[in-house]
Specification:
Keywords: DNA-binding. This protein is of the alpha/beta class. It has two domains: about 80 residues, 434 Repressor (Amino-terminal Domain), CATH 1.10.260.40; about 190 residues, Endonuclease, Chain A. The protein has twelve helices and six strands.
Length: about 280
């Protein structure tokens, strides 16, 4: 079943909800009856999805696509809806992630997105997006967790993530949240296709202070870059400008601790956070 373009001017969230309502009504089902048919998802939850007030979980969408035999039409709309949650200035870069052969990221103040644990991501969004409801925050968390799947693929891109030591020292959430995040870094940092490095405070000033940069090496060998700061960003495709970002990343990489020393520093911070939890 192809996606119906009847609601082309509406958001994917609303289009998904309207599609679900039409499918349900064609079967002659009430929301309560549909709830019973698809494994007990509450009728109020299904109602919010139909009204476009809340995105469904991926698990629910998979159940609905199977139940209505829609050839993954709802799942496609869910993908589009998650895509809309990504800021315009970074959406094109994020959309390139699945195609990149290598991803290089530097962050000056927080753990890079693809290395974040779920609780850490949730707290980051909670502090940054003060006007959003809990449901909206959970949708953003789910979007970021979906992005991380590229590192779980059979043939993942090579990922090189560098962060300022400030990302380890600044407590996001509580000490339990930070402990979970650092444990996650230690687990992912030993994968053969992932390198995690930390730029220590002792190195002083460096390029890209106060912001972050992303470099994607595409299958044709081209490098596409992005620089981000507070609520803004810029895609850089022009070769000379992209080369300048590569140089900055190379300088930061040369100043950072080795992979093993970086993991040791992460372990030392983890002990401190775990000690705080025990006190």
């Amino acid at each position: 079943m192809e996606l119906n373009d009847e609601y082309g001017k509406l958001s994917p969230r609303v289009r998904l909800g309207r599609r679900l309502r039409r499918l349900r009504e064609r079967r002659g089902l009430s929301l309560r009856q549909l709830s019973d048919e698809v494994g007990g998802y509450s009728h109020s939850y299904l109602g919010r999805v139909e009204l476009g007030e809340q995105l469904p979980s991926e698990a629910l969408v998979n159940v609905l696509d199977e139940f209505f035999d829609t050839d993954d039409a709802l799942a496609e709309l869910l993908d589009l809806a998650h895509d809309k949650l990504i800021p315009d200035y970074s959406r094109k870069v994020v959309n390139q992630e699945p195609e990149a052969e290598r991803i290089q990221v530097f962050s000056s103040s927080f753990v890079p997105a693809l290395l974040q644990a779920e609780a850490y991501t949730r707290e980051m969004f909670r502090k940054a997006l003060l006007r959003e409801t809990d449901a909206q925050l959970e949708e953003r968390v789910a979007t970021r967790m979906r992005r991380q799947r590229i590192l779980e693929r059979e043939n993942p891109p090579y990922y090189w993530g560098i962060m300022d030591e400030a990302a380890l020292a600044r407590t996001i959430g509580d000490t339990g949240c930070m402990s979970g995040q650092l444990q996650h870094l230690l687990e992912i940092g030993v994968r053969h296709h992932v390198t995690v490095q930390v730029l220590p405070f002792s190195k002083g000033a460096y390029p890209a202070m106060g912001g972050s940069l992303i470099l994607h090496t595409m299958p044709n060998g081209a490098t596409v870059g992005s620089v981000e700061s507070f609520a803004s960003g810029e895609l850089i495709e022009e070769p000379k400008r992209a080369l300048e970002l590569v140089r900055k990343f190379d300088v930061v990489r040369s100043m950072a601790l080795s992979g093993e020393d970086s993991l040791d520093l992460i372990r030392s911070y983890l002990k401190e956070y775990e000690g705080d939890d025990d006190s």
